[in-house]
Amino acid sequence: MNGHERFNLTARVLHWTMAPLIVAMLFVGVGMVASVANRPWLIDLHRPLGIAILVLVVVRLVNRLRHRPPPLPADLPRWQVLAALASHWLLYALMLAMPLAGWAMLSAGGYPIVLFGGVHLPAIAPQDPALYAWLRDAHGWAARLLFATVLLHVAAALFHAWVRRDGVFGSMARFGRRD
Fold first, then answer.
1. What pTM was estimated for this model as a whole?
2. Where do the Cytochrome b561 bacterial/Ni-hydrogenase domain residues begin and end (predicted)?
């Protein structure tokens, strides 16, 4: 990779906007499970934040499909190239599936999805206690997988930034006049 290739500005802005939202969402989710006292306000934060992430990931996927990412370094081992591709698509799948599963779970439980300003989202699944229980478990396991995948993503980014110094990190991190 040469030092001048990078993701387009939209991809970089979406990446750095969504990264703290997703990390916050993971911690909000843990807090909802761990704290009875804080659960109500965390739920009120979790629902609209999840929908915001859903909207942003759809925009991000459209952008990704319209704009090819910069190539990985030619000397990167094949298994690392495959791992990078697989982990990125897994991140996209989880970023899309998590809010949809949460929305469907609440729909199946008969719970309203209230966003800021009193806006209610329609149910996307039939009200069914068994489906609610299954989706709740699936949402929890997907959150654990997302957390692990985010940790691997950060580790790989730091490996490229601090060990390989090959421009991969800079292709997403740099903001400059050429944008």
1. 0.90
2. 6-172
Q: What is the pLDDT of residues 55-101, one digit of tens each?
A: 999 999 999 999 999 999 999 999 999 999 999 999 999 999 999 99
DSSP reduced 3-state for 68: coil
- Bridge partners of residue 121, in order along the sequence: 113
Give 114: exposed, middle or buried? Use CB within 10 Å, 0-12, 13-18, 19+. middle
Q: Is 114 helix (H, G, I), strand (E, B) or coil?
A: strand
Phi and psi at 120, nearest 5°, equal -105, 135
Q: Are strands 113-114 and 120-121 parallel, antiparallel or unpaired?
A: antiparallel
Q: Determine, yes or no, domain membership for 3.
A: no
Give the Cα separation of 112 and 123 in Å (integer). Answer: 8
Sign of CA dihedral 81, 84, 90, 93: negative
Alpha helices by DSSP H, the chain: 9-34, 39-66, 78-109, 129-158, 168-173
Distance CA 30, CA 141 (A): 12
Q: 69 phi and psi, to 5 degrees?
A: -70, 160
Q: Is residue 2 situated within a structural domain?
A: no
> Distance between CA 130 and CA 58 in Å, rounded?
29
Quick one: the chain helix, strand, coil %, rounded to 5?
A: 75, 0, 25
* 110 SS3 class: coil
DSSP 8-state class, residue 8? -
